[in-house]
Amino acid sequence: MQDLVKTRILFRSKRLNIYLVRYSAGHRIVRHVDMVAEGKLYKFNWVLVKPKAGGRFICDKSIFNLFGRFILFRPDLYEHEVSRIERGNRWLLSFALNQAG
């Protein structure tokens, strides 16, 4: 069976992580909040490729969301999800910054 999610870690440190992620058809991300041990978590997601159908990012509150491609939000404060990808793949470059409290 084909993996629905493939993640490549491009950079990892205590404060900043950068990932390249491919989500395949059939995958969805259920509504959730990201937990952090301390500080504030910011995520900047750049949707490199949108799926042909489905795969819509939904967040209770974003700092900004330009065209559904450039999204900055606080995943530690606001619930977010991605609807089921019906057709195609969703490619994402994700930057996660943990700002110490």
Give me the number of helical elements: 0
Top CATH class: Mainly Beta
Mean pLDDT: 95
| Quaternary organisation of the protein chains | single chain
Note the overall shape: globular
Structural class: mainly beta
Domain Prolyl 4-hydroxylase alpha subunit Fe(2+) 2OG dioxygenase: 20-94
Organism: Wenzhouxiangella sediminis
Pfam family, one: 2OG-FeII_Oxy_3
Protein name: 2OG-Fe(II) oxygenase
Can you walk me through this structure?
InterPro entries: Pro_4_hyd_alph_FE2OG_OXY. This is 2OG-Fe(II) oxygenase. The chain has no helices and 11 strands. By secondary structure, the protein is mainly beta. The protein has a single domain, classed as Sandwich (Jelly Rolls), CATH 2.60.120. It has a 6-stranded antiparallel sheet, with no helix packed on it. Strands 3-9-6 form a 3-stranded antiparallel sheet, with no helix packed on it. The radius of gyration is 13 Å and the shape is globular.
